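Aim 2 progress update. The chain analyzed this quarter is reproduced below.
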Amino acid sequence: MAEQKARVPDAKVALSTASVYPESTATAFEVAARLGYDGVEVMVWNDPVSQDVEALRRLSDHYGVPVLAVHAPCLLITQRVWSTDPWTKLQRARAAAERLGAATVVVHPPFRWQRQYARDFVRGVQRMADETDVRFAVENMYPWRYRDREALAYAPDWDVTKEDYPHFTLDLSHAATSRSDALVMADRMGGRLGHVHLADSFGSAKDEHLVPGRGDQPCAAFLERLTRSGFDGHVVVEVNTRRAMSSAEREADLAEALAFARRHLARVPDPGAVDPHRGARRP
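Predicted structure tokens:
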């Protein structure tokens, strides 16, 4: 096999502030600075600091860590953050991104019960994207499962590649939860893949968000393909560290995730190598 060569990756590696939960948004900036992340993605949620653009700017300046992306508050637990109107949430997320110098707003597709929002969502996201240099990157989701039952919670669809969005966020843990092949999904996204949430999984319905390398998803192959494609978006470590027994253990997990991302983004894959996750020669 040809020797793997290293290069300087185009993609920056950021830390999602959700990755330090239940610790605070401020802690995420501190950890990102200490570990050497290129920036953070701010998950706007119930922490008041995550909702306060000036507080985020002060944290960014203090730690020398740029905000590279803003995740709009579109989770079940954030239905009342930045208004109950979903379009107002996206407008405020865009304004926050512009003021903080972030390149991307991450947004989920609507819940099915948000009928009017869902009906206008594809066209509305395109209109908002046309009004700014900030990327609106719609994130792949998954069906909700309980035992042998499945509920389709998102509209128009959890599989965002079925719609004509300007940019996509590909979340590898979500791909596993939906029982999708992340590499195939990335192929369907093509040049509109603008943002990545890096996490591993065994495909549990619980959406595991494991440290990359600890599950069975093709995280390494995915990152190496990003490098080969010239991807210049951001790779965001979004992992679940709630089971960490201490801040030191959480930080060790996040250091491991950063090292994994940097190692595989810096490789130039051998085009003739066999990809163990696909069982065939890489295209």
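The helical segments are 25-35, 53-63, 86-100, 115-130, 172-177, 182-189, 219-229, 247-265. Confidence is low (pLDDT under 50) at residues 273-283. These observations will guide the mutagenesis experiments scheduled for the next reporting period.
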